[in-house]
Every structure is written in C-alpha cells, then in structure tokens.
Amino acid sequence: MDFERLSIKKELYQQGKEYIPQITVASYEQAFEIEYTHNSTAIEGNTLTLIETKLVLEDGISVGGKQLREIYEQVNHQKAFRYVKDCIANGMALDEKIVKELHALLMSNIIIGGVYRNVDVYISGARHTPPSPNEMYRQVKNFYADLGWKGDVLNAIELAAWTHAEFVKIHPYPDGNGRTSRLIMNYQLMAKGFLPISIAKENRLEYFNTLEAYAVEGNLSPFADMIAELEEQQLDRYIGMIEQGKQMGQEPEM
C-alpha cells in the first residue's frame, strides 16, 4: 500500500471537489449508496438484485416474492449509512454509543439492536471462533479503549482496516456484525477526509480471506491493501470528475 500516493490524491480531491457540479455529486452519491447497500447486504445473503435494491431505496417499491426481512435489511442499511454521514458532518468521533445506534438502525423491525450477545456463536467455514460472552465483553471494552490511540499509530487506511477487522473478529452481536463493521470502516475513512468504499459481493471470498488472515494470524496487511485499492479507485473517479469540471469551465461551487 502506497499511503503517500493516496494522501496526495485525497488532497487533490479535497481541494478540487468544488469543481464538480452539485447535481453530478448528488447523482453519484445516490448511485453509490444503492450499490453499497446492495453489496453489503448481499455479502450476508440478501437475495435482492441491484435493480431491485434501486426500486426499494429510490422508488419505494416493494419487490414481490422477497422476504420482508430482506426489504428491511436494505432500508435499514440506507438509514444507517446516512446516520454515519450525519455524524461525520457533525465532527463526531466514533464511539460505543454511535456503533450501538448503527446496529439498532440496521436491525430495526428484525431483532432488538444495539444489545451484545450472551451466547456463543460460530462462523461456518471460518478457522476463527468468536470469543464466548465473558471474554467478548472484555474484548469489546478493549476495542473502544484502543480506538483513540490506534489513530495515533496507524494511518487512515490501516485504522479503517483495523476497526473493521477487530470488530468483526470479536463478533459482539448475534447478527449484523458484518454490516456494522463495514459501516464503521467507512466511518473511519470519511472522518479522515477519504471517500467511503463498497466491497463488491463478487469479491467476498478475497474479502473473507483477508479478514481471516487478521483473525487467525494477526496480519492486517492483506485487508488494508484491499481497502487501499478500493479507496484509490474512488479517489480516481472523483479526480476525473474534477478534471472534467475544470475543462468544461465549471466555476467552484461554494
């Protein structure tokens, strides 16, 4: 991972984003929100297609033949991502209260959210077994205690990767840990001025393997590299829109 190159691109994005017309930004952000919701829920087994996700989120149309839970998962994810953006806009640092609220939003009309599990859980196909409840509570406490100082020793990409990988390794909730982890990963990216990313459902095997490398071996690099690559793709898209805006004589929008 070349973090210096990413930092330069982030500055290019931050300094030039006013050259992108607001209507372009709004349409791209809406498309990203739909894609991100689709991918994040599909990784967990949601069967709605991308176009069905668009119908549910953008047009408010229910999709026939789908379980109500699947509809709720998508609507809830959109609300949770918007809550992340609101918190970032208000300069709020990630903490336990915010994460619990995110989980509660994700689980609305499904199960009671924001409540830690009191039973053992197992992840099929994984070499890592999440800790039993008593040990899990200790690890959760340490996770939130570590959030602050980790930001002083890790760069923004590594911090986002660690936040996701450590949280999902602990697996503190009975359900929704993956979606929550991907949201708090993006929270950390956006809080540092980077763009949110979406991990495609087609890449879930690589994604799970990189998380397994951290859970079993403590090796964060493969997952951090995956995040860095996706972040660079996002930055390149926006820098391309900035260049296009400048070529078209677009005035900076305040």
Structure, explained:
With 254 residues, this protein is an all-alpha fold. The protein has one domain (17-116, 125-242): Fido-like domain (Fic-like fold, Orthogonal Bundle). The chain contains ten helices and no strands. The protein is globular.
Q: For the record, what CATH class applies?
A: Mainly Alpha
The helix/strand series, from N terminus to C terminus, equals HHHHHHHHHH
What spatial form do the alpha-carbon principal axes imply? globular
Helix content: 55-70%
Low-confidence stretches: none
Could you tell me the CATH topology label.
Answer: Fic-like fold
What distance lies between the first and last C-alpha atoms, to the nearest angstrom?
A: 33 Å
Report the β-strand fraction as a percent range.
under 5%
Concise account of the structure shown:
The protein has one domain: Fido-like domain (Fic-like fold, Orthogonal Bundle), CATH 1.10.3290.
Secondary-structure blueprint:
Elements: H1 3-16, H2 22-43, H3 50-57, H4 68-89, H5 96-106, H6 133-153, H7 156-170, H8 177-191, H9 204-217, H10 221-247
Helix pairs in contact: 1-10, 2-3, 2-4, 4-5, 4-8, 5-8, 6-7, 7-8, 7-10, 9-10
